[in-house]
Write a structure and sequence with these properties.
Number of domains: 1
Structural class: mainly alpha
Largest sheet: none
CATH topology: Growth Hormone, Chain: A
Number of helices: 15
Order of helices and strands: HHHHHHHHHHHHHHH
Helix content: over 70%
CATH class: Mainly Alpha
Low-confidence stretches: 195-201, 387-402
Number of strands: 0
């Protein structure tokens, strides 16, 4: 592992804070809020699934938009703008009781989230690659784990009901966005004007097909517990059980620890073997509420899925770049597009599954099948080159601009 100096820490912090704003506060806060908003009567479970679907559709559109923004201008201007817009949209949710307007806000939130979630970590990955420090890139995702814990606190302390439950979340997101937007802009200025990551070439090929197919399965597999586990806990646990609220805390805590864990696992085992182990554990986690419904199944699902899904992202991003080092930014956008496209199916399938009279618990069979698909494809992923070999051969050593 490269030494973590002050410049590395600043770069990682910029992207980590961006993920707190858009992905933890802007997106995943909806998960612990969902059972509370259902109790408030703001909408029913079917409408809640629709709202999640709109958000995931926006996320897919944002990831596709990031394909066209993966250039110096997009990084310097579009990325900070998307971050600020996302925080503003989170605030806007405080002021609406209308489900249709809320759906529009969740859609727009997803678009801005997709842009930032693709470009911020990819920007830092390219910045680190220029300094032969790619192995540090997974630490960016500590922001998401910490942000999920922050969500749990903000949801728990709010004294309000209905849409006002979003207010503490928005009041936290806005200053964080204002803080890290200029930090990301400065990082983008440090990249070459025409980095190798913008090279045009084949994004699909036999060298990365298995990795892409596995990632598609992972997107559908993880999204069910990350959207519906608190609601599933209400179905399986008695009133007043501590895991009705605590399941999100355990998920967030596992997520916080997972970025460092999987970053080191990739360095120790190799990213390919670490990814395969990651998928196997995630498969077990999604299956546990079906095999052992009740406190043990809910708890195990929270720990295993919370402790693996970030590892899936960081290991896949590094593997993809190792297999095709000249396509860093565009490949990051493609991966998130595939991931978000498959996870878009999750709430839609749950909506129709439960409407047909099936339980929310049994809908996790969809996630089990998706992650089994991911395991089978991950087994076929090629062994990449080492991290040292994946750094650009024509590294720029120009001084950073301040």
């Amino acid at each position: 592992m490269p030494r973590l100096d002050r410049a590395h820490l600043t770069a990682l912090l910029a992207a980590a804070l961006a993920l707190v704003v858009v992905h933890a506060l802007g997106r995943f806060a909806f998960t612990p809020l969902l059972p509370l908003l259902l109790d408030d009567g703001l909408f029913d479970l079917a409408q809640g699934a629709q709202l999640a679907t709109w958000n995931y559709l926006g996320y897919l559109l944002g990831a596709l938009l990031a394909l066209f923004m993966a250039n110096p201008r997009g990084l310097r201007q579009g990325l900070p703008a998307a971050l600020l817009v996302n925080a503003g949209l989170t605030l806007a949710q405080v002021f609406t009781h209308d489900v249709d307007l809320l759906a529009a806000l969740r859609l727009a939130n997803g678009v801005s989230n997709g842009v930032v979630f693709v470009l911020a970590p990819a920007l830092v990955l390219e910045w680190l690659a220029l300094r032969q420090a790619t192995a540090l890139s997974g630490l960016v995702y500590l922001g998401l784990g910490g942000g999920m814990l922050l969500c749990g606190v903000l949801v728990a302390i709010t004294p309000w009901q209905g849409p006002m439950r979003w207010l503490p979340i928005a009041l936290c997101a806005l200053p964080l966005a204002l803080l890290c937007a200029p930090m990301l802009r400065r990082l983008a200025r440090d990249l070459p004007d025409k980095p190798p990551a913008t090279a045009r070439g084949a994004l699909f090929g036999s060298h990365n097909l298995a990795l892409l197919m596995a990632y598609m399965g992972a997107g559908l597999g993880y999204i069910l517990p990350l959207t519906f586990l608190p609601a599933l806990a209400r179905e399986q646990l008695p009133a007043g059980h501590p895991l009705l609220v605590g399941n999100w805390w355990w998920t967030a805590l596992a997520c916080l620890l997972s970025a460092t864990l999987w970053n080191h696992a990739g360095a120790w085992l190799g990213d390919r073997r670490a990814l395969l182990a990651n998928y196997l554990l995630q498969l077990l986690g999604v299956t546990m509420p079906i095999l052992l419904p009740g406190p043990f199944g809910v708890m195990t699902c929270a720990l295993l899925v919370g402790g693996t899904f970030l590892g899936t992202v960081l290991l896949t991003q590094r593997l993809a770049r190792a297999l095709n080092p000249d396509q860093g930014l565009r490949l990051a956008a493609l991966l998130i597009s595939l991931y978000s496209g498959s996870q878009l199916l999750g709430p839609w399938l749950v909506q129709h599954w439960t409407a047909a009279g099936h339980s929310l618990t049994s809908s996790f069979l969809i996630g089990t099948a998706a992650l089994l698909w991911a395991v089978l494809w991950a087994w076929q992923v090629s062994e990449p080159r080492s991290h040292a070999e994946m750094e650009p051969s024509h590294v720029s050593h120009r001084p950073a601009r301040h």
